[in-house]
C-alpha cells in the first residue's frame, strides 16, 4: 500500500509506520466529511430557495378553472368536433 500510493516516510524516519498512514487517512476522511456536510447544507439551502421561488411564481400565475356544463352549447360543439375529427 505504501508503494502504491507513494507515501514517503517523515523526515528523520527510515520506514513508514502504519500509524502514520492511518493518521493521514483519518485527516483526509475528516476533511472530506466536513466538506461533504458543508456542501450538503449549501445544496439543501439552494433547493429550498428554488422551491420558494417556484411557489411565488405559481401563486402569481394561478388560473381559475370552471367546470363545464355538459348541456352547454360549447360542450356540444366540442363533442361534435371530436366525433368529426376521430372519424
Automatic annotation (TrEMBL):
The keyword rRNA processing does not apply. One of its GO terms (molecular function) is microtubule binding. The keyword Manganese does not apply. InterPro entries: FH2_Formin_sf, Formin_Cappuccino_subfam. GO terms for cellular component: actin filament. GO terms for biological process: actin nucleation. Residues 33-83 form a coiled coil. Keywords: Coiled coil. This is Si:ch1073-209e23.1.
